[in-house]
Amino acid sequence: MYNIINFNEEELKKWMKENGEQPFRSKQVINWIYKGITSFDEMKNVSSKTQENLANNFYIGTPTIVRKLVSTIDGTIKYLMKLHDGNIIECVLMKYKHGNSICISSQVGCRMGCTFCASTIGGRVRNLDSGEMLGQIIAVSKDINERISNVVMMGSGEPLDNYDNVLKFLEEVGKEYGLNIGARHITLSTCGIVPEILELSEKGLQITLAISLHASNDEIRKKSMPIANKYTIKEVIEACKQYICKTKRRVTFEYALIEGLNDEKEHAEELATLLKGMLCHVNLIPINEVKESGYKKPDKKRIDSFKSILEKNKIETTVRREMGADINAACGQLRRDYVNE
Ligand code: SF4
Predict the structure, then answer these.
(1) From the CB of 288, is ligand 1 less than 6 Å away?
(2) What span, in angstroms and rounded, lies between the C-alpha atoms of 139 and 277?
(3) What is the 3-state secondary structure of 260-328?
(4) N or C: which end of the chain has fewer CB within 10 A?
(5) What is the pLDDT of residues 18-31, one digit of tens each?
(6) How confident is the model over 278-321, as pLDDT tens digits?
């Protein structure tokens, strides 16, 4: 059995042809899938014989919403979703003036081991396929009955640890007959897997690359991000320069501020030296506290002082606006609580 969302129009057309169906029906089938149907018998303009043939060979891999937390402050919605095999993932919808933005997961769990992240506590369970990533957007769009115009790949999982499926997702998400979300409206966030950043840069995609840097030197980075034992900050920055050169896109550096670990003035200065002159932007993220890690968020004064040092060095810097403060489970925490129940 295959997840039908993994088949694009061409691939489904081919399957229809080889399996005694009329190829033109593939368009109708795909339209229904992107409307968020959960069963083949909901496809009103498709014969019951074709519905049966499809049901015997495919399943619809759109995740099912099992829990929803809605912020009364800004309308942010955190979703817990069940996949076809019973695994649970999280995704988040954020409502902005410029449109709806969704943060999706790319793996069940994660094996990267960042100490500030709840998604990694149980390790990586499995990769999501491209259809399961598209499916999160389809399910949420159906739930809110609105179009989603921006995607951030920043939920559970390391996208570049699931490179082939993520690449297929990036190709499919822009298709006009499907979700029609352009590359410039997509951000891929990675902890910095250098060979895949270099490979991705060769594709010349117009997506935004975001690097979870979170430290200004390797010594500190190694304390919270095991990937730093494999690739140095210097190697990550060099790969980003290559990415900028190939795509002409500005790279974002994510920096989670953790009190007493990476939020001192000298860290800001060190970071400024690393990034000076690059086509980049720093996004400071006052950390979400994870029960298991004991990390604390710095106060506003420390955050502002860190930001002003970067700005003095002409590095564009923002502090991530807290969305859904009243439903503020850290990334991966909601899933852990649900699975533990
Ligand atoms: S921060 Fe990202 S890469 Fe690190 S463990 Fe969490 S999901 Fe994985």
Answers:
(1) no
(2) 41
(3) CCCCCHHHHHHHHHHHCCCCEEEEEEECCCCCCCCCCCCCHHHHHHHHHHHHHCCCEEEECCCCCHHHC
(4) C
(5) 999 999 999 999 99
(6) 999 999 998 876 666 678 889 999 999 999 999 999 999 999 87
- 119, 125, 163, 213: residue to mutate for ligand 1 pocket, most atoms within 8 A of CB: 119
- CA-113 nearest atom, ligand 1: 5
- Please report the pLDDT score of residue 292 as a whole number: 64
Q: Domain 64-340 is of which CATH architecture?
A: Alpha-Beta Barrel (3.20)
Buried-exposed string 204-230: b where 16+ CB fall within 10 A, e elsewhere: ebebbbbbbbbbbbbebbeebbbbbee
Say which CATH class 2-59 falls into. Answer: mainly alpha
Would you name the residues annotated as active-site residues? Answer: 90, 331
Q: Which of 79-83, 119-123, 164-168, 276-280 has the lowest mean pLDDT?
A: 119-123
pLDDT, position 25: 92
330 band by pLDDT with thresholds 50, 70 and 90: low
Contact status, residue 311 vs residue 271, Cβ threshold 8 Å: no
Residue 152 has pLDDT above 90, yes or no: yes
Domain boundaries along the sequence of the chain: 2-59, 64-340
232-249 tens-digit pLDDT: 999 999 999 999 999 999
Mutate to test the pocket of ligand 1, among 108, 153, 154, 158 (most ligand atoms within 8 A of CB): 158
